[in-house]
Amino acid sequence: MRLYVLTGGPGSGKTTLLEELEKRRYKIDKEAAKDVILEEQGKGVKEPWQKPDFQEKIVDLQLKRENELPRGNAVVFIDRGIPDGLAYCRFRIQGRARRRG
Q1: In the sheet that 27-29 helps form, which strands lie side by side, from edge to edge?
Q2: What is the pLDDT of residues 19-49, one digit of tens each?
Q3: Whole-angstrom distance, CA of residue 43 vs CA of residue 60
Q4: Which domains does the chain have, with CATH numbers?
Q5: Would strands 27-29 and 2-6 be described as parallel, antiparallel, or unpaired?
Q6: CB 49 within 8 A of CB 72
Q7: What three-state secondary structure class fits 45?
Q8: How far is it between the farthest Cα atoms of the chain?
Q9: Whether pTM exceeds 0.85
Q10: Do residues 5 and 62 touch, judged by C-beta distance below 8 A?
Q11: Which of 27, 37, 47, 71 is most buried by a 10 A CB count?
């Protein structure tokens, strides 16, 4: 499998590009954060991104999805992905350490 991760800031066109790739019959994996937000808000959590485990939930969902991707010669495009989630988690941990220090 050839896996391409699209990364960039909010509003930079990642989702638009993925939608076009999907129209062209490429396999895509949409951003997990949006689904985590919708799921948590469905449970009554107004701002799930404020919860300490928000990034962990995104990484967990992304890992689950990536484990279900086709193998072999498939080409898959992912909206963000594990590297972004890990970077965000690391950033949060470093930020907490700075505030304590």
Answers
A1: 2-6, 75-79, 27-29
A2: 999 999 998 888 888 899 999 999 999 999 9
A3: 18
A4: 2-100 (3.40.50.300)
A5: unpaired
A6: no
A7: coil
A8: 51
A9: no
A10: no
A11: 37
